[in-house]
Amino acid sequence: MTHVKLVHFLKEVMRRRQRKPSNMAADLGISHATVSRWLSGQDIPNTQSCRRLAEYSGVPVEQILSIVGHLPRVAVKQSAEWPEFREYAQHKYPTELDEDLIVMIEDIIERRRTKKDTGKKL
């Protein structure tokens, strides 16, 4: 069951970030073969890789460690598994992004979602 949750989580990360397994591997600084083993259920991330996945996805490391099976099941505090951009940006870039930049990026994200939903090319 752990592998099913992990595969679902990884596929969702790739979908949200619009990345392929090889791109995600490069982003995380690990081999493509490692990501392939995770996606096929042959292996699970070690704790260091869980930390990288947490930073990469914006999901708390405890939740990822739980998904992978390194920790007992962690109750999710929010109904959504993924933080909204504002929450992620404030956590990941507390000094680099000010309110104006966050609003601009949120607007771009919303425009992309709208275009995607209406079937227009991006």
List keywords for this structure.
122 residues; mainly alpha; 434 Repressor (Amino-terminal Domain)
Describe the protein's architecture and organization:
The chain folds into two domains: 2-68, 434 Repressor (Amino-terminal Domain); 85-118. The chain has helices at residues 2-17, 21-28, 32-40, 47-57, 61-68, 85-92, 99-118. The protein is built from seven helices and no strands. The mean pLDDT is 83.
Alpha-carbon distance between the termini? 37 Å
User: What amount of the residues lies in strands?
Assistant: under 5%
* Unreliable segments of 5+ consecutive residues: none
Q: How many beta-strand elements?
A: 0
Largest sheet, strands/sense/barrel? none
Looking at the structure, the CATH topology of the largest domain is: 434 Repressor (Amino-terminal Domain)
Report the average pLDDT across residues: 83
The domain count comes to 2
- The percent range for helix content is 55-70%
SS-derived structural category:
mainly alpha
